[in-house]
Design goal:
Radius of gyration: 16 Å
Helix content: 10-25%
Structural class: mainly beta
Number of helices: 2
Shape: globular
Number of strands: 11
Largest sheet: 11 strands, antiparallel
Strand content: 35-45%
Number of domains: 1
Length: 188
């Protein structure tokens, strides 16, 4: 077993598939960091800039983590969009998308605003999808707490500061995105 792990790591290094610092192999195999596929990047470009008139934020960067679900689709992609303040980021944080592979594209399960790092994968689940924990920090009105985002059968909450997002203390969960240091450009 240990030899298989070492062999897999060596292959990933040889192939240039390196895990970003701050990402994890997941809580009991529930999450893994990955480089976004071209299909995912194309979907994100179209979703975030549907008219394609001009690139809204050529400096946008994404950090992507795959998360296993109990649903038939089997996984969802957690995408943290970072960049300068503007379209996807503000003083309270940046946007996070939760996507599920659907046919040859993706279905948006969550488009969540005001997300600060770290993003955590929680052990609890709703409707076969994992709960996600995030830090909330906002100056006006002053806010500093942790929020739990749960799937409601259709989607995740649209904001970390509005119900149904829940304020909690001491989130217990696996940190899946802790930094944007190893994010990749969305437009390259």
């Amino acid at each position: 077993m240990k030899m298989q792990f070492v062999t897999r790591v060596l292959w990933m290094v040889l192939l240039g598939i390196v895990m970003p610092i701050g990402a994890s192999f997941g809580q009991q195999g529930d999450a893994s960091s990955n480089r976004p596929s071209e299909a995912l990047k194309a979907f994100l470009r179209s979703y975030l800039n549907p008219r394609q008139e001009a690139l809204l934020e050529e400096t946008a960067r994404i950090t992507v983590v795959s998360v296993k679900t109990e649903d038939k689709a089997g996984e969802e992609e957690i995408v943290y969009i970072s960049g300068p303040q503007g379209t996807w980021c503000g003083t309270g944080g940046c946007n996070m998308l939760i996507l599920e592979p659907f046919e040859s594209s993706f279905k948006v399960l969550g488009d969540v605003s005001i997300v600060q790092l770290p993003i955590r994968l929680l052990p609890s689940r709703k409707y076969r999808h994992p709960d996600i924990g995030v830090q909330v920090e906002w100056a006006a009105p002053p806010m500093d707490y942790e929020a739990v985002l749960s799937f409601n059968g259709t989607n995740y909450p649209v904001s970390t500061v509005l119900p149904p997002a829940r304020k909690v203390k001491g989130i217990e969960g696996k940190r899946i995105i802790t930094t944007t240091e190893h994010s990749v450009p969305l437009y390259d």
